[in-house]
Design goal:
The chain is an alpha/beta fold. It has 4 domains: 126 residues, Rossmann fold, CATH 3.40.50; 163 residues, Rossmann fold; 74 residues, Helicase, Ruva Protein, domain 3, CATH 1.10.8; 63 residues, Arc Repressor Mutant, subunit A, CATH 1.10.10. It contains 19 helices and 16 strands. Helix 17 packs across helix 18 and helix 18 crosses helix 19. It binds adenosine-5'-triphosphate and magnesium ion. Magnesium ion binds next to helix 7.
């Protein structure tokens, strides 16, 4: 049931509207002055407000102004005996949806209310769609359909709009900075700055003043007062990259800011309060650093409120073709080049590669290919040597199919095939030997014997 609030100082009008609209199946509440009406608006939700313009004390325009500044969500219809165009225009400017003049025909009130409800529903729907679109657009850039990355994306959606501290971990090039940006731009802080600070890139002795700023004359060279990153990030997000490299003395200082949310500039005595969300990132194993005494345990727990671990690319292999397609499209557009076609065989080499540099390595390779092979087909010959190891192994099969007039060394060839198959089966079964054996149609003991003979070493935790 839609709810209507009537604010009018004349009791006869309040009663008339209340009776009539109730008979039309609306829930109607009435207030006799602006102040009382506003209090109701602040504590309850009304779909439509019928508001008298001329009232003693707070008049209709004052109420509209408050509704606007308090961002109260309702649709207002003015009721006025003084149908002067300027006041009506002013009311509309202040956000009123419509106005009716006294004396009114009740049916006109009914029509105006129904129209107001229909339009506000449309607006609400529109806002919801806009919000959804924004959400989709801004998490869109983290690509990947594989289970580990999908889990990360879903988790980010859940935690983005909280104020909790996030610790992003993962190997180099796995997208830690991308995650920090996605979180910030999907939070209510998105209109305030995302301020990055790379703890490894800034010399130790100036890092403190970078973080907290300094007062004029705090040290030699401090000719002016300078605001630090914490102050710059006020109301926004501070991204502390490579946090694992932070010197012990600064770890203590950072811990204090995280706990107290206040600090002093270097050389300053004034305590500065800030409202900053922290996202920290590292490719180091911080827990190990804690055990080794390199990183403060208390700081680690302060940072690790929401841990996000990014999978290395080799753990999301099924996404490699998707990422390639994404980067080919994006980079060729940016560089205004024709996108090259990636041959099947090249795609095979790229999906089998180990990718120690993760997504960044992939992105850089694609950029290089686009510059070198504009609009052309990329074949394995265009790929750097390191991508071709698997291909060499698979060549054995091609050779095996056709015997050349030079003949072959059958034993060596069979041996190579056997090695190759065993390694592949072990990789596929993540080192679980019983599984690998069944993939090869062998029993487990035979497989282990062969591995020993060939000195193939492959351990799994479960075997
Ligand atoms: N899942 C992904 N989808 C799309 N682009 C990605 C993805 N992961 C990473 N990237 C891109 O790869 C590049 C490297 O990512 P980023 O700089 O975030 O990595 P990082 O983890 O911060 O690396 P480092 O530890 O070396 O600083 C960026 O251009 C980023 O946009
Ligand atoms: Mg980074």
């Amino acid at each position: 049931m839609y709810r209507i609030l009537v604010i009018d100082d004349e009791s006869s009008i309040r009663e008339l509207l209340k009776d009539f609209l109730s008979s039309k199946d609306f829930e109607v509440v009435a207030a006799s002055n602006g102040e009382a009406g506003l209090n109701l608006l602040k504590s309850e939700k009304f779909d439509v407000l019928l508001l008298d313009l001329m009232m003693p004390g707070m008049n209709g325009l004052d109420v509209l102004r408050e509704i606007d500044s308090e961002k109260i969500d309702t649709t207002s219809i003015m009721i006025t005996a003084y149908a002067s165009v300027p006041t009506a225009v002013e009311a509309m400017k202040l956000g009123a949806f419509d106005y009716i003049t006294k004396p009114f025909v009740l049916e006109d009130v009914h029509i105006a209310v129904k129209r107001a409800i229909a339009v506000s529903r449309l607006q609400e729907e529109n806002n919801r769609l806009k919000k959804e679109l924004k959400k989709k657009f801004s998490t869109h850039k983290i690509m990947g359909n594989s289970a580990p990355i999908q889990e990360v994306i879903r988790f980010i959606e859940k935690i983005a709009d909280t104020d909790s501290t996030v610790l992003v971990t993962g190997e180099s090039g796995t997208g830690k900075e991308l995650v920090a940006k996605t979180i910030h731009y999907n939070s209510s802080r998105s209109r305030h700055p995302l301020v990055p600070l790379n703890c490894a890139a800034i010399p130790k002795d100036i890092l403190e003043s970078e973080l907290f700023g300094h007062e004029k004359g705090a040290f030699t060279g401090a000719v002016n007062t300078r605001i630090g990153r914490f102050e710059l990030a006020n109301n926004g997000t501070l991204f502390l990259d490579e946090i694992g490299e932070l010197a012990p003395s600064l770890q203590v200082k950072l811990l204090r800011v995280l706990q107290e949310k206040e600090f002093e500039r270097v050389g300053g005595i004034k305590t500065i309060k800030v409202d900053v969300r922290i996202i920290a990132a590292t490719n180091r194993d911080l827990e190990k650093a804690v055990k080794e005494g390199m990183f403060r345990e208390d700081l680690f727990y302060r940072l690790n409120v929401i841990p996000i671990h990014l999978p290395p690319l080799r753990k999301m292999r099924e996404d490699i073709p998707l990422l390639i397609e994404h980067f080919v499209a994006e980079i060729s557009k940016r560089k205004k080049k024709e996108p090259p076609e990636i041959s099947h065989e090249s795609m095979y080499c790229l999906s089998e590669y180990k990718w120690p540099g993760n997504v960044r390595e992939l992105e850089n390779l694609i950029e290089r290919l686009i510059i070198l092979k504009e609009g052309d087909k990329v074949t394995p010959d265009d790929l750097p040597e390191r991508f071709l190891e698997k291909r060499k192994a698979s060549k054995v099969f091609t050779k095996a199919q056709s015997l050349s007039s030079d003949g072959v060394d059958l034993n060596t060839m069979l041996d190579e095939i056997e090695n190759n198959m065993i390694v592949q089966a072990l990789e596929m079964s993540k080192g679980v030997k019983s599984k690998a054996a069944s993939l090869l149609g062998l029993n487990r003991t035979t497989l282990i014997e062969k591995m020993k003979k060939k000195s193939i070493d492959f351990h799994s935790k479960t075997d």
